Amino acid sequence: MNVNTSFPVESETSQRRPAISDWLKKRRWFLIFVLGPTLLAALYYGLIASDVYVSESRFVIKSPDEKRSQMSTLANLVQTTGLSGGQEQTNEVLTFVRSRDALRQLERVTDVRAKFASDNADALARWPTPFGSNSFESLFKYYGKRVEATFDSEGGTALIRVEAFAPRDAYEINLRLLDLSEALVNRLNDRAQETAITEAQSQVELASARARTARIALSQYRNSQSLIDPTRQAAGVLAIADTLIAERAGLQAQLETMQRITPQNPSIPTLRRRIQSLNGQIASQDSRVVGGQGGIASKLGGYEDLIVEQEFATQSLNAASAALVQARAEAQRQKFYLERVVDPNVPDEPMLPKRLLSVIVVLACALSLYFIGWMFMIGVLEHAPKD
């Protein structure tokens, strides 16, 4: 008698299918929200995600006057705490690297769009993104994800980190950004120097014009009044008058002696005539000094005013010239320069993506969200009203 043994096998198979179906049904949310994203992440990072190369460079901004010996104690304390003289300029450069201006200038010196849209990149990683556009704003957002500019407070250096899909592309973008940063520092130096020196130069020009005006006014006054130096001329006239007065005094004494001893001396009339002549000469000399509007004394006030103005203008010119020299020296001392500590490197192997770590992160996030949702549903069911 033949016995058909296929029935138990078919029965066992039919029993397994509902069991697997029930198991899948019970765990469908876990499979959808945890296993599904993890498998997709493993598929993407394992087979699709393109290699990303990273190029780094480091620099500092220094000033030739950072170590000057006349620093105060407070300045020394500030410098030892890491607030160097060029940190403010470093922050300005880092802000520039992260800005739209840097991207626009970068587009002029290299084809950054083509580098970010490389054929070596997968569709999700390259620019433009699947849901993005070809606009500059879209490029700028992508640029912010691929270019990092930060300050390393521990090492005291600024870091530029560039990600690209080819080693040479990452190196070239980093190198161009470093060149643009150095050019920015030079422009800031020129602007600061120009501002300080221009102001000092304008003061020198004003003082020069004032001194020139004073000299011209003094020359015109001398020509109009027919004199060179009233003070010296008045002194010369007074010296002549003093000589004549001394001579008159001698003759007056001689005349008095003759009149007392020999009243009939025939020389007495001659002496009297000489004394009268000296009186006229003395009066003439006095009138040259103090004789109304034509006298030297009437011209002395205007001359002294012009002399004072000329001396003051000359002193102002000297002070302005000294300030200009000092401004140039100070601008030179405060000049900053960018020093490359680490030049951009050409990476020889990709640094990103971290494939295994990325899959683990996706799994951890999915598990966290799943358990949060599961606990939330448990709480809702526990507090639900029972029929």
From TrEMBL:
GO cellular component terms given for this protein: plasma membrane
Question: Matching InterPro entries, A to Z?
Answer: Bact_polysacc_biosynth/exp
Q: Does the keyword Transmembrane helix apply?
A: yes
The residue ranges crossing the membrane are 29-48, 356-381
Q: Which domain of life is it from?
A: Bacteria
> What does the UniProt keyword field contain?
Membrane, Transmembrane, Transmembrane helix
A GO molecular function annotation here is: protein tyrosine kinase activity
What protein am I looking at?
Capsule biosynthesis protein
Q: Which species is the source of this protein?
A: Croceibacterium mercuriale
Q: Specify the taxonomic lineage.
A: Bacteria, Pseudomonadati, Pseudomonadota, Alphaproteobacteria, Sphingomonadales
